[in-house]
Structures are given as structure tokens and as C-alpha cells.
Amino acid sequence: MYFKNPPWDTYQTPPEVYDFINRNPPGRALDLGCGTGTNVITLAKNGWQVTGIDFIPKAIRNARHRAVKEQVVADFRVGDVTRLDGIEGYFYLILDIGCYHSLNPSGMQAYRDNIKQLLLPGGTYLIYLFFRTEDGLADTGALETDLDPFLDFLELVHRQDGTERGTRKSSWLTFRKPL
Fold this sequence. Notes:
Mean pLDDT: 91
Low-confidence stretches: none
Shape: globular
Structural class: alpha/beta
Number of helices: 4
CATH class: Alpha Beta
CATH topology: Rossmann fold
Largest sheet: 7 strands, mixed
CATH superfamily: Vaccinia Virus protein VP39
Oligomer: single chain
CATH architecture: 3-Layer(aba) Sandwich
Helix content: 25-40%
Order of helices and strands: HEHEHEEHEEE
Distance between the termini: 43 Å
Strand order of the largest sheet: 3-2-1-4-5-7-6
Radius of gyration: 15 Å
């Protein structure tokens, strides 16, 4: 049932997500590109009402199986993060660990429109992403300018830069939607 060592899933919730959980009361959360559901399950175990979406059906099947095994209630959906068909209402937290940076420019625009529509005023958008390398050896990832449009409707609260696997520039960003 489980994927055999998917390179995009560590099966561990990062400390940045735990920090958020410890500082905020539970509410509604949306995990974009949730993979096999690790962070959805962690949020649900901590009282959150969580929806996770991913475009890989096998990942969602795995996530559903894991949620049952962990005895948590979570809403897992196969879907496209640029369309979010059937996702309604507002979310206090929208989480993205490694999804936005993989989209093309038109996908990024549609994705941002979804964030703008679905994030509750006062809500948090927490994102981890990595960047393209300046030497052109890695052509996937975000550009710094791909973050600028978020500032049209969100406030940057915190940024922590690091490296992805010790080589590529990466960042954890916390945005808040003004009231």
C-alpha cells in the first residue's frame, strides 16, 4: 500500500509546521500538494479540520489508508491545485510544502488566485519552496520574483532561508492575510 521511498515525501512533519500548531488554535486547514498525507494527519491529530489535495491518485489512496490507521478524520482529494474544484469556504491555514515551485507561470497565477479566495482574513499561508539555481543546472523551482505577486494580497510575516539537500536555496515563508 505504501510508496517505496518516494523522493518527495519524508513521512515526517517539519518543525515549522509543529511551531505553527503550537502557536495557533485549531481551525480549518488546506494542504496543497499533500502527497501521502503526513502533514494533514499531523494537523488532524492536533484538532484541525483538514483537507489535503494532490494530483497523484496513488498518493491520495495511501493518505486515506494512513489516516484510517492513525484513527484521524481528514478529507483527501485527488485534484489540481490550480483549479481546486469543490473546495469551498475559508481556511485559517493553507500549507504548501514543495508544490508552488513546480508550477508553470500560468499555474502559479491560478494557484495564487485560489489562495486569495480561500484564505480567511487573518489566516496564514505557510509555504516551503526551493529556487532555481543561478547557474541554470536546476531549471525547476521558483524565482524570487514568483513571490512578489503574493505581496499584493498577503503580508510577509517571517522568512527563513536555507538549502534544499544542502545545495539549492530554499525558504520557509509565513504570510498572513490582512483583516
